[in-house]
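Work package 3, deliverable 3.1, input record:
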Amino acid sequence: MIADDERDRALLAAHVGGDPDAFAQLARLHTGRLYAVALRTLGDREEAADAVQDALVSAYRRAETFRGDAKVSTWLHRVAVNACLDRLRRQAVRPTVPLSGDETVTTRDEVQDRERSLDVVAALARLPAEQRAAIVLVDLEGFSVAETAQILDVATGTVKSRCSRGRARLAVLLEHLREDVRNPADAPSVRPEAHDASAEPHDRPAEARDEPGGAA
Amino acid sequence: MNDGSDARLDMLADLLAGEGSEQDVDSVADSPELSAALIDLGVAQAAVVADLARLPRPDVPAGLEDRIAAALAAAGAYEPTARVPVTGHPRELADRDQERGRDQERDRDQENVPVSHVTGHPVGSVVPLRRTHVPARNPWPLRAAAAVAIVTVGGLGFALLPRGGDSPSASTAAGGSAGRAASELPAVPTNNSGTDYAASPGLLEAAVPTLLGGAALVGQRAGSASPDKGRDGPQAAASAESAPSTADTSPVSPASSDPVLDRLRSPDELAGCLSAVSAPNVRLVPAALDYAAWDGEPALVVLVPTSQDAVRAGYDVFVVGADCRAGKDDLLHFERVPA
């Protein structure tokens, strides 16, 4: 929302101007959403918390690098997603399925919903890191494709492709949840031999392509 | 899925995203099976999007916001990263910092302290941090707090001690090893209060002047005979009631502190612990110690001056557990206490 971004910009400007509390306020406003993105991207609570902390401290120190051509929240998410992807690269973190031990489920419906959620989260964790990041931002956090492209620093077409490919993989992984939908992976191959089927349609260099469980 | 089905799936997904090639469009148009698969995939993707939308937003872990607030505070005052390199003799830099501090103090007095229109807090003030336990899984931001106390020039680190440049121990060359650092640790007020500083909010902050044992607080008004003189309100009361009353710079005589902390009385062990708490290549030079407790656990309280900036100066207070040693910080709590 514009009002939120104006508030965020005012806090960031106050921080750069020497207000010692402004960035902490900004951080509090965004910690929940940043943590959600980090957790879904990394799949580990402690790693996610560390990544958010690293990202916010980094943003605190590099506040002057915010150019103002995107929302402050977009910029913060960019720093956070980069921190997550860096962690995946450095530590070869394999996303795990975070179990929510804090929740108590009692009814049968609640149990089924919980199991379904765990299945979805587990499938999400099996996606290539950059497809997962795109899906988390677009489908879970509601960022537009354009904002997600800014966050991930890729073309909008790349975001669309990553999201669609990721959803397609999820559809296969979650096929057991839907008896009535034919597995789309069962269709015959018509790809010409010389055609690189795995290449993204846009601007990613070969070494930056998604690899299962990796971060490109 | 094998490579072929992966490629097929990606091709269909790209088409659904409007990012497929003309060749792919033609292929699907010519194949009833692929056309059906494309439709199936579209339906399945819609279901996936619905599943994703139903995922509950994860709760932020308890304490994360506090931990981040502590890390931000420990990161020190904001300065643009494209700053002018600091050069000059460390002693001159220390003098310059103090002079700049006096200038800022003068300016602040004249301007009645500007208040941020955004947060309502005085610009340039240092806000005490939380009093709850700091999860120290990733304590480097906390360690960075110590860097504020160090002016590094040409590989030499000089710490600004409370009395500034006038004291013989005002600057101490940073050592490369804990052992060397141990030999260079200055004598500091050492307390053995056994006080559990987590017992009540404000207790640790209130105790700082007393722990310093009369060492002049940077920025404190001249002429204060007692560190608590001039303080009003609950902090002063808390200090009078609860803070340790004695500071001892003579050889340590454990009074009330837990014997499990005795290992940290060894200069080498203490230096190793401080090296674990500090940022890489930064040496913490304590201004005071207290062998005390935190939340029921024996703990060592280490006070380190925060800044070369006299106006913003205060103390970084590290509370470490009995297992603090080289390579393991065992950090229980951190807070920044303003002068």
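Chain A touches chain B through 82 residues (CB under 8 Å).
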